[in-house]
Structures
1.
Amino acid sequence: MNAAALASGVARLGRTLRERGIPVSIGDEIDAARALERLRGADREEARCALRIALKIRRGEWERFDAILDGLWPGPPRPRNPVERAPTASIDGKRPGRSPPELRDAAGVAEAGGAGTAEGTLPGYSPAALLRKKPLDACTAADLVAMERVLARLAERLATRRSRRLVPSPGRGSPDLRRSLRRAIATGGELVSLACRARRVEEPRLVFLCDTSGSMEAHARFLLAFVLALKRAARSTEVFAFNTELVRLTAWLTPGAIGPTLDRLAASVPDWSGGTRIGDCLERFVAEHLATRVDARTVVVILSDGLDRGDPATLAAAMRAIQTRARKVIWLNPLLGDPRYAPTARGMEAALPFVDRFLPAHDLESLERLIPQLSA
């Protein structure tokens, strides 16, 4: 659905609300349309909550609003207990309980699900929920295609995170009295327009170092797919691959489908799925790239199982240098998803003292939990 059709649907809802005695302004309708465009992948309940907020529906009028909304766009019965409700949309968009056509087309497809029946009491089937928990080493090429939508949603969360810093805003925000009064000088002291300011959208500075050795073969493609999605959201992201050599991939990353991009990278990176010398590669990164690619605002993320054939002292020295310069060092280890795993490999033991966050990376759900860490 295009923007005009979406605006028409929201305007019809606003007109109906006003006819039923619920005050809604034109500005509120504009906010509601923007909220639905921003969601891109909402189930019916998420869209309902977004509309309540954007249209400024008071708590005491929620039941009336819900009845009007359900009357305009009928859907399955809502669960009586909100605690029992779970998202109902899925990757293929074929699950019941989705938002109405006027809202759904603007929202797109949800990345996660796991819904109950119409009464919300029995678990339901959701391909998205299963995909999020599926181990990466068990995923197929078809799973990678399905993951692209989920990864795009994860990247969007990173791209829309707001900082604490307030900057001038042309639209809505908190009033900026100082700038407003300064503007009034040009109009003889009359406060004609009110200046506003809002929290700036913060783009994190990220550096990814991805292990493409043989022991990481089952995970490397899917972890790189995650990195590629984040690269589209945070344009300043730097990406490196390492095994027995260090290769900067940033210049090779171009917009397009993830699958062909990964095939091109696999063919271009020397010794892909071969041996690994983590310490030597990180030592080269420190010597050639640390001063120019990493500063006090940069989060360095290393994706590796820590199985190193080189000297642990070399790895420890490189990690010390990276931690000293970076804002934060995160190590993602696919093996950490196994409760029996212990970081006893020589390389992992040498690196851990210089790691700020040691996290699993064995499925999409674990990668989803990483997003707040990248900008915290």
2.
Amino acid sequence: MRYYLSSIIRVSLFFLLAFLSVVMIYTTHQNSQVVQSLARRSLESTALALSMAAENALRRSGTGRETEIRDILSDRVVAYALIARHDDTILFHTNPTLVGTKLHDNDVKQQLAKGNVSSREITLGTGIPAYEFNFTLHHPDGSEELLRLILHTSQADMIVSRAERMWWLVGIMLALLWTAGLLLERTATRYIRLQAQQEEQKRLTLIGQMTAVLAHEIRNALASIKGYAQWVNEKTAESEPSKPAMGAILQGTGRIESLVNEILLFSKQEAYTIEPVGIAPLMDEAAGSGLTGWQGKTELEIDPGILVMADREKLLRTLVNGMRNAVDAMGGDGVLHIGVSAEGRWVTLRIEDSGPGLSAEEVPRLFTPFYTTKTEGTGLGLAYAKKVVEGMGGIINLENQKYKQGAILSIKLPAS
């Protein structure tokens, strides 16, 4: 259920961010287009106003018309202006030296044929962008001339450039938006996961408490059964037919007692006494308990000066169990390699056997409580080892060896 909730939050957040991103990009694009259109219309309006003023000046009689037209077209937005007749002869130019010359493009007739107004964007010979505006001047006598205005576009370009900068702002906002969205998704997912872990921990704690109570009651009842069975066994002669049965009862109660003790050990709340522990003497003590009756070969690779931060008794119990598992896997013969290496702030303890190794089916369930491949195992040894090693701030792993047959149990603990 929590997995689906996490997926729903992730998908919903993604679509929300995608929708907001599309809206912001579309809005910015539209605003940019509007600004470009307004800048062009501003140039057209300026050019049209100057053209109308020049035409009105031409319509008036008097000797000061040219001066008035020159004053009108001397606006700082005008790069240059000219008036030409049908044969392309320039009648007026803001540069007086060009009056009487002809236009190079020879398109006055074409421009006049287009109607009153036409415009286009051009590039001056200096490489500067400009705006060309062509306007048909109508004289009182019915003749027509072409007024051509070349306007600077720097102001309009500046406005458009500022509008284009909005893309940078939108890009930064989108980056911040997606970053915030990802952080929110991570936070929500982590919160859901923590809630699930807390509920699982509560459930396991309750199960552990129930298991401890049941195991305690079973052990009390088992103590009476075992004591009575031992008393009856002592009173029964070897020749009696019930003697083997009593031995089986004692063996069975012993196995149940061992299982109950391991359940109580696994289910109780652990308290750790973390202190510097010398690995070499601890390994010797563990070998003395875990390798009793071992007839195979044992190889040791331990630096006597290495110390780890651990709970000595719990680590000892874990090592003894690991050595016993390795011996059982080899079936009483083989090579057992015990090594310790320090690397940075970590110390790695290794117990390597030369047994058949682990099957693919075993690996995912190795540290699962009550899972065992032994006929007389309880399946709590590795589960307890994982519990206490992680409780001491370490890491435990069991896997097949890479370059030879057998399995390797590795325990990483903080160095002292």
3.
Amino acid sequence: MKADPQATERVLAFLEKAGGTVTEGDVAAGAGLDVANAKASLYDLMLRYECHLEVHEDGTLAYDFGRKLVSLTKRTWRDIVKSIGKWSWKIFSWVYKASLAVVLVAYTITFVVLILAAALAASAASEDEGPAEGAFRLVGHVFIAIFDFHTAQAITYVAEDRHGYKHRHYEPKKPVMRLRKGKPAPKSRSKKHQELEEHPKGFVASVYDFVLGPERVRPDDRAQTRELASFVRERGGALSIADVQALSGLTRDESETLFARFVAEFEGETDITDDGALIARFPELQRSRSTEHDEPIIWYWDEYEAPYEVTGNTVGKNILIAALAGFNLVCSLFMTVEFGVAGGLLGLLGVVPSVIFGLFFAIPAVRSLWVSRKNSEQHEHNIRKRLFRAIFKRSILDDDTSTLPIRRLAALANAAEDAEEMLDADKIRPLFEATMRDIGGDVDLHEEHDLVVNLDQLRAEIDGRRAQAAFVVGADEQSKHLAFSTERDHVSLTEYADVEKRIVGS
């Protein structure tokens, strides 16, 4: 049912006055609306404000918008400062690359004879084009490469960091001209790694990356929502907050907000199981003829973060670039000292390159400190993903496990088949506690097992979602037993009674 704008405004006014947690009945009575309009208005507001769906002790569904309504699009000062910094860096990067491109063009023109000579040599073996045509074509490609500020292609391949975590990496731009063939990669490497080593990154792209760093693979902002929709469609039309956590890696509080927004956005219906687990059903998402264009479902722990890189170049190429830049910096400083800042064209030829090549070394030096800090965070994030995997993929499947000791969790994380680093339970203790707080598990100090986490809530939510999906598709009716449902008319009360009789009798 589509929300009436006037009804939504009345519900908004009621929420601002009431504050805290409300039920659909509270809203209907307080705003003077029928229950259907109250629910539609609540769903509309869930798309605009932060909301958590909760289960009351009496088994009813409650909407928690907080004491004060918080807009989902509201930006904090921290967000604003971060956004300004991000755009400032983008603008500076573009301006710096443009100024550096002018210098590179100047060198290209200066050494055009060498480039043409190399082009003539390279095209001499070509049967399809003459030497002159090949030479001019290559010079054109060199100029295009200089003004192409993207140093990587949108094609990704799987790389591995020093801790053994596999991640996606952009394929770098290939060189315009190769004077010699690259060294063959060892046969133990993957085909993609062999190809990258035999066809290394282009020199112009390496120059830009030396200063500003290589491009990182960035996820699509809406990919998470599409992934949740794919999960619902593939897993019988049901979703729990634990599923949202397993797919996104968000904290419990953030997952509850995303769960509520997703329910409102896709017109979900909520159920509460005997164990107090909140499950959402999405009948509309199930109505489909094809899943061909659905987003691939990738668990949070299967998406390791890529390490941050200072340059992304080989040591040899960094030495070469640094030597050339150092030579230019010394010559530029000599011109500046000799002719001064107000020395006309000659003075300008000294000052401008001095600034450009001074930043050429200053920026990577500062970035290296930032990269070191970000890599520490990236390493912790990847360990956190392994803990998520051990909890959701392994321990949740064990029906006999009510509490999980930290040493058992480390053992489960180390049991993965991939060649990842071994985790020490004592060293990951602070991260374990932080991750458990994020997930929402109850962490206790146990005399025998040291730290343990209670998994009852997560298991109840996942089991409830599986039971709901099984009941909807008719795979296992006996596994479903609802205490409350927002829409029971999708199956008759007689059928519910029959199901309950079989459950009790089994």
